[in-house]
């Protein structure tokens, strides 16, 4: 069967799952957020990476349904976690999802209300590429969601389209530095300079920074020293199932 037929079946048969990766405060080590990451294991093909099926879903339009599944599942989970910690849920949104911007806006508000998650506990992660097209509907949607308290983050910062003017026009709350810079940082002077520059720029724009792909303690120490607030990566935890993440949260809560 072709992959897009399988993906269609996976949606119908409820075979998609969401995993969660902690985002931690680099100063205290506390988990402040969870990034929702979609997972698909096909019965015959086994694990299929989102790096493979998300682009496919963007092409064939299934991304709208996939996005809705993640939105519902992750927000419901995050609402439950509020009893353990005041955690935010970071969800990735494809630029294609914003082509149905009115429906998207409506669904986000509807899901938040349904599951009882305060809007400021949702962080929508978007990449720079959504700003390539100057679309009024997109801009209105982002502004409206922002006005009700939803947080906006820029994902994979530094890797894509980079006309920085969009940073001024929207009040983003977080900037996520792409892991390629973080991984090069410890032995590449150019990468280290870029990370420094991104942190300085973020500070002047009053944006908090998440460093992605932290794998080693020296990276975390150095980023903390430079004033980077948050970190994410295998050093802290790989993406976990909902049950595993709940256990991690419980053990953290007990330590306080
Ligand atoms: O989860 P990693 O584990 O392999 O994810 C690979 C890529 O797929 C990343 O760029 C990630 O942002 C993207 N991705 C994972 N889950 C989602 C999702 O729910 N929606 C969108 N749009 N992208 C996702
Ligand atoms: O930013 P984006 O949504 O593209 O990032 C999520 C992707 O990064 C997922 O594929 C996730 O599994 C991966 N990831 C998370 N932490 C690390 C890490 O420490 N190292 C590497 N190589 N990948 C990571
Ligand atoms: Na992301």
Describe the fold and architecture.
By secondary structure, this protein is an alpha/beta fold. It has a single domain, classed as EAL domain (TIM Barrel), CATH 3.20.20.450. It contains ten helices and nine strands. Strands 1-2-4-5-6-7-8-9 form an eight-stranded mixed β-barrel, surrounded by seven helices. Strand 5 (122-127), helix 5 and strand 6 (151-157) form a beta-alpha-beta unit. The site of one guanosine-5'-monophosphate (G) has 14 residues, from strand 6. This is Bifunctional diguanylate cyclase/phosphodiesterase. It comes from Shewanella submarina. Residues 1-253 form the EAL domain.
Give the topology.
Layout: H1 3-12, E1 16-25, E2 31-42, E3 46-48, H2 50-60, H3 63-81, E4 88-92, H4 101-115, E5 122-127, H5 136-147, E6 151-157, H6 165-169, E7 174-177, H7 179-185, H8 189-204, E8 208-211, H9 217-225, E9 230-231, H10 242-255
Parallel strand pairs: 2-4, 4-5, 5-6, 6-7, 7-8, 8-9
Antiparallel strand pairs: 1-2, 1-9, 2-3
Helix pairs in contact: 3-4, 4-5, 7-8
The structure holds guanosine-5'-monophosphate (2 copies) and sodium ion.
Protein name: Bifunctional diguanylate cyclase/phosphodiesterase
Keywords: Membrane, Transmembrane, Transmembrane helix
Domain EAL: 1-253
């Amino acid at each position: 069967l072709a992959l897009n037929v399988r993906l269609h079946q996976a949606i119908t048969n409820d075979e998609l799952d969401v995993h969660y990766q902690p985002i931690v405060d680099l100063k205290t080590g506390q988990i402040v957020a969870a990034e929702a990451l979609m997972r698909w294991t096909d019965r015959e093909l086994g694990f299929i990476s989102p790096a493979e099926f998300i682009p496919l879903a963007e092409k064939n339009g299934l991304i709208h349904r996939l996005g809705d599944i993640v939105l519902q599942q992750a927000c419901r989970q995050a609402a439950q976690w509020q009893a353990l910690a005041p955690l935010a849920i970071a969800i990735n949104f494809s630029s294609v999802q914003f082509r149905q911007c009115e429906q998207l806006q409506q669904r986000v508000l509807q899901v938040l209300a349904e599951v009882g998650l305060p809007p400021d506990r949702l962080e929508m992660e978007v990449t720079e590429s959504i700003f390539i097209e100057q679309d009024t509907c997109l801009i209105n949607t982002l502004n409206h969601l922002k006005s009700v308290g939803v947080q906006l983050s820029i994902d994979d910062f530094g890797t894509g389209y980079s006309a920085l003017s969009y940073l001024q026009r929207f009040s983003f709350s977080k900037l996520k530095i792409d892991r390629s810079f973080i991984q090069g940082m410890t032995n590449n002077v150019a990468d280290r300079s870029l990370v420094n520059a991104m942190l300085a720029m973020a500070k002047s724009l009053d944006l908090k920074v998440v460093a992605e792909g932290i794998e080693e303690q020296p990276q975390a120490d150095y980023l903390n020293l430079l004033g980077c607030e948050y970190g994410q990566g295998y050093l802290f935890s790989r993406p976990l199932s909902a049950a595993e993440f709940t256990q991690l949260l419980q053990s953290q809560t007990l330590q306080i």
